[in-house]
Amino acid sequence: MKENxxxxxxxxxxxxxxxxxxxxxxxxxxxRPLHGHHEKGKEGQVLQRSKRGWVxxxxxxxxxxxxxxxxxxxxLHSDIDSGDGNxxxxxxxxxxxxxxxxxxxxxxxHATKTLDREERAQYTLMAQAVDRDTNRPLEPPSEFIVKxxxxxxxxxxxxxxxxxxxxxxxxxxxxxxxxxTASDADDPTYGNSAKLVYSILEGQPYFSVEAQTGIIRTxxxxxxxxxxxxxxxxxxAKDMGGHMGGLSGTxxxxxxxxDVNDNPPKFPQxxxxxxxxxxxxxxxxxxxxxxxxxxxxxxxLVTYNIIDGDGIELFEITTDYETQEGVVKLKKPVDFETxxxxxxxxxxxxxxxxxxxxxxxxFKDTVTVKISVEDADEPPMFLAPSYIHEVQENAAAGTxxxxxxxxxxxxxGSPIRYTIDRHTDLDRYFxxxxxxxxxxxTKPLDREExxxxxxxxxxxxxxxxxxxxxxxxxxxxxxxxxxxxxxxAPYEGFICESDQTKxxxxxxxxxxxxxxxxxxxxxxxxxxxxxxxxxxNPNFTVRDNRDNTAGIYVKRxxxxxxxxxxxxxxxxxxxxxxxxxxxxNTLTIKVCGCDVNGALLSCNAEAYVLNAGLSTGAxxxxxxxxxxxxxxxVLFVTLRRQKKEPLIVFEEEDVRENIITYDxxxxxxxxxxxxxxxxxxxxxxxNGFIPRKDIKPEYQYMPRPGLRPAPNSVDVxxxxxxxxxxxxxxxxxxxxDSIQIYGYEGRGSVAGSLSSLESATTDSxxxxxxxxxxGPRFKKLADLYGSKxxxxxxx
Length: 795
What we know:
Immunoglobulin-like; five-stranded mixed sheet; four-stranded mixed sheet
């Protein structure tokens, strides 16, 4: 602390000496006369610059000065100042009057506050000499600068408190890792306050740092990530060129070694033992093995291959890239009875190899995998994957179709039991011998119905029925000639009526062909002939075209529909089967009327008979009857519409079917002369129900005279009775009048009854002043039945 105080005092002395030197120079400048010089202006005009009586240079003041007295910055003095006090010095500009003050008589400038160069490096001020009495400027104002002189009061600071960097493992010595940078707020142009030097405090001997640039480099070769991955380095930056007394700052750098492929994969063991059941299906996993590679990422990727072994055709290996394991799978089925063990040679190799480290190779490893086959209870095996048998149609039940054979592949050799899958033989055409496997028919088969039958035969072990096998069996039904040929279509021939002398045409009247349901071997070729009994038919003949078709020809002319309009010609059709089958088919030939060109006109026998029908007179009579009936209906409807309804309702008619509308409107609640509402009774009172009474108020008031209603009006009673009697005595007047009771408002009203029709008290006992409190809806009633005092107040 004492040494720092002495240094600070020394710097203050240096600053004062600099200020004194500047002031002395300034004073000499004041005393040295400055002569004006001439300059040429435009068009040869000579300009003369006025002489300035006082000038000065820059002033300096040291920062962070903490002395007891203000710091003297400098002194202003004018040549015209004779020392009699008539000149006044004025200071203006940045910090004038707050930081910098001037003695207006002597011109001395002092700094009243501690200055910090890092906050502001210089101040621009304006000085002027004026007359003290009149404030008249004696000299033009001049500008000068006060610079704050720097001291080493700021330590270096790094841009980041912590840095993170990566460098590949096994990098060469001197490999650049990262550059750290520090800054110093002090003035770099003055002394060594901002001159920084970098050094490493922690991290040797693995890393080093360049003193001038701050670049961190590797210092040891072959650093291995697998041995140590992360390093922590501390870097220091010191000002004053690193000399004693300088200020310093530090930062931490975390350096991580990134991985390179410098390690080959290695199997942890030389032999792997695995097993697989002979019942396993291809694709099933047999086992896993893994080669370890300490590298990470793509540098640690390993692929597996089978390079040798007697099971190379039966097994395969794939790579699980998530677990980096080799998965051995079954490629083809294995048989315990054939071979009980296999051997494989598996190779594990890196996917990505770095050429820089090829000398560390080879980057692969091999291992032996021994696989043993386990015996399993296998299902029976048929000697053939499928069977095809034949049987003739119409064969008798019990005919042998063929045989299937299966055996148990296990060493025990269990007996086999055969059955037919009835889902494939719903009609139960076949049976099978349970022990020998012979398939037999259960009924004759028809090839024309089904030419092929497909069934499935099941073979099951006798001692273990869960072990079974299935084989498809196709059975072809062989055709026999059991169907005679028939017409391919329902043929029909037509001939024209003609004279006896008209020549017969050589064209057939119709061509026919045949169809046979049997196979082609038992079908065509077809033969067409007439039956033996009509071979010499005088009317028609058959000519076989020897192409499975035949033509029917006319042997004579002169056919007449009046004599015979229809001929039925039997034709015998034979097939080419062994033995041949034949059938007799009937051809219909019609005699038709034709025009001169031979075109058919009509083939009906009724063409020569007159058409039976109605005459014209009969049709006219029928139409006349229809018109008369229509006229009668129209007249009847018209008369019905003109008929008037009777005005009098008969006694047997229900009067409830008449709806009468009244447009009369009553006089309202003020109409007290129309009728006596006291005659209207409460319907509930008839049944013994006691209606709700008005609640008598606690305080009684006299009702206003003259406003009480007349409950028993004799005139209204007489009026109503007279009208009722007139209506009852008038036989032509329907009972249009009715009396409805409206004197009861219902039960359960919260406000209570508003009617006094059935009140047991007299008018003098009732007080209706409470109607004033029931709101505007009851204002009219309150005015009618209110107390006299209230009425007088309102009036």
